[in-house]
Specification:
The protein is an alpha/beta fold. It has 24 helices and 13 strands. Helix 6 crosses helix 12 and helix 7 packs parallel to helix 12. The longest helix has 22 residues. It starts with 6 loop residues before the first helix and ends in a 5-residue tail after the last helix. The site of 6-O-phosphono-beta-D-fructofuranose has 14 residues, from loops.
Length: 556
């Protein structure tokens, strides 16, 4: 049965009408205990959702919705290794990748997910190989073809094989190796690789080709171009063996590319690309921050896993965060969701969350193939909050559209400068307060009057311009500090939030059929550039664009 037909969903729809006319100002005024009762903390993460347009009753009804969607049962199935990714007939076990067992596989750990299906030996063995490789490279003990120590690493990958390690490499730059450079190349636009290569010394550069499938067009073309550059510069095709590493679930394809089996790090079909940063896909990150910090990242994630698995729904961070999102999307009608980090080091977090949330839950057909009668993932977007204040925040404050926001900040600065952190946090807290409470007509009138005499027509023209309706919902996620463990927890929190929302919406959060059509069409268009017969089979717009791109502006 569709969740939209459940008593819990209906109760929420009725409740929405009852709450529709209540402004956040009234919700705060009417409940002195609001902030305490609508905040949760776990392991250095404080989640304040008191500025959401909901009350205790909303939360109670949302928790009933989670029960109706059998969130607890499905969570158990995920941790049990059941094939909950039904359309691909796969288990979903990224949680295994961060389970303890030490970076040394000989320490061992209990079977997971279960005795008859234990993935931990290969997880721990791979983790140990990664740590050994990263340690040697960081110590200057990893040598290129001409005997020079590797000093630059280039991760070639896209989507889940790029966004997570890149985002965390920046977020944890305070932990970075002092002299090793780690770069990321994802875009098939040659501009990215072509401008990077001249800055590198081929003798001391290592390429990591990260691709679960090892068939992704962009990644393979970038890897081939990097290989051509290396061979041309070192004047020896055998150099590839010392300068290329692969991370893939298809070792045979990496070997065919020319990568030595000893330098291929595995991942498995039970890890989705967007959930893979904890696996060998995180190799570039481990090289940058070191195995110990990488271990702390895993520890943070695994602590959040245990919290998610065991905490009652009412105080379960991922569950509550997911329910707040459902309320905003399905009951208040928000079409988008903004992620606004107030930490320069979290600059790439919105892009990472875009893939996590929109590739997982941007679906309109349920697991059973039936069309859904409600919307699923909102359009997630975002930018560094402080920069956004001087750009797009105008629309958030006065544009009249409902845009729920996640403000994300760290209490302690990772790169302190006198006075900066206080100004940063003051801005962060001010923006969420302004969005929630706005500025009323009496307040604006008083402000204008205090500014001195003004002609009445100017006064009445200015008054509406200066009003802030407020009632714009937001949550604030305040981290103790930007350290590996806290970030590990934060990312696991968002992962499980996505999982819970997918369960409520009834979609499979672990497949991504929607990305296939564009890939297939690109494969049809590519040969058509040189073959008029093939071009004749394309649509008129594509033909026109191809003609324009070939001969310049005259043909159109
Ligand atoms: O096209 C989408 C996608 O399959 C993502 O899900 C994935 O993270 C990305 O491409 C890269 O895939 P791969 O790691 O197989 O190169």
């Amino acid at each position: 049965m569709s969740i939209a037909l459940s008593p819990a969903w209906n109760a929420l729809a009725v409740h929405r009408e009852a709450l529709a006319c209540t402004h956040l100002r009234e919700l705060f005024a009417g409940d002195p205990d609001r902030v305490r009762s609508l905040s949760l903390s776990f392991d250095g993460i404080h989640f304040d959702f008191s500025k959401q347009r909901l009350n205790a009753n909303t939360l109670k009804l949302l928790l009933e919705l989670a029960e109706a969607a059998k969130v607890g049962e499905w969570t158990g199935r995920m941790f049990n290794g059941d094939s909950i990714n039904a359309s691909e007939d796969r288990a979903v076990l990224h949680v295994a990748l961060r389970r303890p067992g030490g970076l040394d596989c000989r320490l061992g750990c209990p079977p997971f997910p279960r005795d008859d299906f234990d993935v931990m030996p290969e997880v721990l063995a791979t983790r140990a190989r990664m740590a050994d490789f990263a340690d040697r490279l960081r110590a200057g003990q990893c040598f290129g073809h001409s005997g020079v120590a590797i000093r630059s690493v280039v991760n070639i990958g896209i989507g889940g094989s790029d966004l997570g390690p890149k985002m965390l490499g920046h977020a944890l730059r305070a932990y970075a190796h002092p002299t090793l450079a780690v770069h990321y190349v994802s875009n098939v636009d040659g501009a990215q690789l072509a401008t990077l290569l001249p800055t590198l010394d081929p003798c001391s550069t290592l390429f990591i080709v990260a691709s679960k499938t090892f068939t992704t067009q962009e990644t393979l073309l970038n890897a081939q171009s990097a290989r051509d550059w290396l061979v041309a510069n070192l004047v020896d095709a055998a150099a590839v063996a010392s300068h290329f590493v692969a991370v893939t679930a298809h070792a045979e394809r990496a070997i065919e590319f020319g990568i030595r089996p000893a330098l291929i790090f595995p991942l498995w079909d039970w890890v989705g690309g967007r959930f893979s940063l904890w696996s060998a896909v995180g190799l570039a990150l481990m090289i940058r921050i070191g195995p110990a910090a990488f271990g702390d990242l895993l520890k943070g994630a695994t602590r959040m896993d245990e919290h998610f698995r065991s905490a009652p729904f009412a105080c379960n961070l991922p569950v509550v965060m997911a329910l707040v999102g459902i309320w905003n999307s399905n009951f208040l009608g928000a079409a988008t969701h903004a992620v606004l980090p107030y930490s320069d080091s979290l600059a790439y977090l919105p892009a990472y969350l875009q893939q996590l949330e929109m590739e997982s839950n941007g679906k309109s057909v349920g697991k059973d193939g039936a069309p859904l009668s409600y919307t699923t993932a909102p359009v997630l977007w975002g930018e560094l909050g402080n920069n956004g204040q001087h750009a797009f925040f105008q629309l958030l404050h006065q544009g009249g559209q409902l845009v729920p926001c996640d403000f994300i900040a760290a209490a302690r600065a990772d790169f302190p400068l006198p006075g900066h952190q206080e100004v940063l946090l003051a801005n962060c807290f001010a923006q969420s307060a302004a969005l929630a409470f706005g500025k009323t007509e009496p307040e604006v009138r008083a402000e204008l009057a205090a500014g001195g005499a003004m002609r009445p027509e100017v006064f009445s023209a200015l008054l509406p311009q200066k009003l802030f309706a407020g009632n714009q919902p937001s949550s604030t996620v305040l981290l103790k500090q930007l350290d590996p463990q806290t970030l590990g927890s934060l990312l696991a929190l968002y992962e499980h939030k996505v999982f819970v929302q997918g369960l409520i919406w009834g979609v499979n959060s672990f497949d991504q059929w929607g990305v296939e059509l564009g890939k297939a069409l690109a494969q049809q268009i590519l040969p058509a550039f040189d073959d008029p017969m093939l071009a004749g089979m394309l649509d008129a717009s594509t033909l026109g664009l191809m003609a324009f791109s070939k001969v310049g502006s005259d043909s159109i």
